[in-house]
Amino acid sequence: SLKTGIVGLPNVGKSTLFNAICENGKAQAANFPFCTIEPNVGIVAVPDPRLETLSNISKSKAIVPTSVEFVDIAGLVKGASKGEGLGNQFLANIRECDALAQVVRCFEDENVIHVAGKVDPVEDTDVINFELALSDITQIEKRLQRLEKGRAKTKEEIASNEVEKAALSRIVEALDQNIPARAVQLTEDESVLVKGLQLLTMKPMIYAANVNEADLADQGSSNAYVQALREKAAKESCDVIIVSAQVEAELRELDPVEAAEYLESLGASEGGLASLIRTAYRQLGLLTYFTTGVQETRAWTIRSGMTAPEAAGVIHSDFERGFIKAETVAYDDLISAGSLTQAKDNGRLRLEGKEYIVNEGDVMNFKFNV
Ligand code: GDP
């Protein structure tokens, strides 16, 4: 599943948010085996109201949501990239993540000590980003040395090495100016060559602005810290989401109906977990398709652009290998038809072949040879 690392300075609300996410995730998926698997790793169900609607249509016995893994990466502090003490381990944990959520303190509370003495989202994020950038610069320098020393044999190798060197030099220049690798424009060829380095600042980063409950209604528009963070994020190709770790923690004490009422009373349309997951999905170019039947209704996560056989392969490699065709109906079409039979009668159920690119919300039934 998608793995999201939670990073940030000490005392900004990381553990509060992580614990709330895992507890709320468990509560929403009471019947599913999602849980905290290690003290700092939690797997949570991706909330998706479409599952319930689909399962009513199919009279399914079970609902299986897709899941996201969260890792609480505490301890990324000043000096981590120098590899002192546990620093290296933290960076290795980050390297394994698909996306990073950086919790940024945007709330005032004189009872909660700030490590730098004052609330300052711009400086706080600089501290964390600097450690990630230093690690990337070290990686890139090693790679550049290897490219210099290595004896490229063919003309193609020489040309490709030149392309890579040029791209890496541009990234280092950007990093020197506090600009992350993800904000550097690369050609498709360059992207492919650079990908192998798994640069930390290339990973999608979501700033989770941790605010007090009063800021939820207007999404932080009247909070100057959030404003400053949004301006900075735009330059770094980052998204900002608004959460209140404290509210998330309170939500976990409530049943789903009470929780929805509480959120509504705060003027918030959804909890922080849903918005975090939705943003990560979008940044990573992920989408959801469904399978549905009497046994179960289930959500599957794929990368956007995947063909029908590739999407089938997410369920089982046999489905991909023996793929013949896929009965496909768009979620909205199925809901307005009311049943698969009706959707077929309306001409909404399509037979798609090997070239078909799966769309968000497709409901699919694969036909395959074994
Ligand atoms: P971590 O070190 O980043 O994991 O931070 P913690 O989650 O342990 O939180 C540090 C302190 O800030 C705790 O005392 C929390 O109760 C408090 N805190 C976390 N989120 C909020 C928030 O949204 N508002 C307020 N007022 N306090 C918070």
UniProtKB/TrEMBL annotation:
<feature type="binding site">
    <location>
        <position position="211"/>
    </location>
    <ligand>
        <name>ATP</name>
    </ligand>
</feature>
<dbReference type="InterPro" id="IPR006073">
    <property type="entry name" value="GTP-bd"/>
</dbReference>
<dbReference type="InterPro" id="IPR012675">
    <property type="entry name" value="Beta-grasp_dom_sf"/>
</dbReference>
<dbReference type="InterPro" id="IPR013029">
    <property type="entry name" value="YchF_C"/>
</dbReference>
<keyword id="KW-0547">Nucleotide-binding</keyword>
<comment type="subunit">
    <text>Monomer.</text>
</comment>
<dbReference type="InterPro" id="IPR012676">
    <property type="entry name" value="TGS-like"/>
</dbReference>
<feature type="domain" description="OBG-type G">
    <location>
        <begin position="2"/>
        <end position="263"/>
    </location>
</feature>
<dbReference type="InterPro" id="IPR023192">
    <property type="entry name" value="TGS-like_dom_sf"/>
</dbReference>
<keyword id="KW-0175">Coiled coil</keyword>
<dbReference type="InterPro" id="IPR004396">
    <property type="entry name" value="ATPase_YchF/OLA1"/>
</dbReference>
<feature type="binding site">
    <location>
        <begin position="11"/>
        <end position="16"/>
    </location>
    <ligand>
        <name>ATP</name>
    </ligand>
</feature>
<keyword id="KW-0378">Hydrolase</keyword>
<dbReference type="InterPro" id="IPR041706">
    <property type="entry name" value="YchF_N"/>
</dbReference>
<comment type="similarity">
    <text>Belongs to the TRAFAC class OBG-HflX-like GTPase superfamily. OBG GTPase family. YchF/OLA1 subfamily.</text>
</comment>
<protein>
    <recommendedName>
        <fullName>Obg-like ATPase 1</fullName>
    </recommendedName>
</protein>
<comment type="function">
    <text>Hydrolyzes ATP, and can also hydrolyze GTP with lower efficiency. Has lower affinity for GTP.</text>
</comment>
<dbReference type="InterPro" id="IPR027417">
    <property type="entry name" value="P-loop_NTPase"/>
</dbReference>
<feature type="coiled-coil region">
    <location>
        <begin position="137"/>
        <end position="164"/>
    </location>
</feature>
<feature type="domain" description="TGS">
    <location>
        <begin position="285"/>
        <end position="368"/>
    </location>
</feature>
<keyword id="KW-0479">Metal-binding</keyword>
<dbReference type="Pfam" id="PF06071">
    <property type="entry name" value="YchF-GTPase_C"/>
</dbReference>
<dbReference type="InterPro" id="IPR031167">
    <property type="entry name" value="G_OBG"/>
</dbReference>
<keyword id="KW-0067">ATP-binding</keyword>
<keyword id="KW-0963">Cytoplasm</keyword>
<dbReference type="InterPro" id="IPR004095">
    <property type="entry name" value="TGS"/>
</dbReference>
<dbReference type="Pfam" id="PF01926">
    <property type="entry name" value="MMR_HSR1"/>
</dbReference>
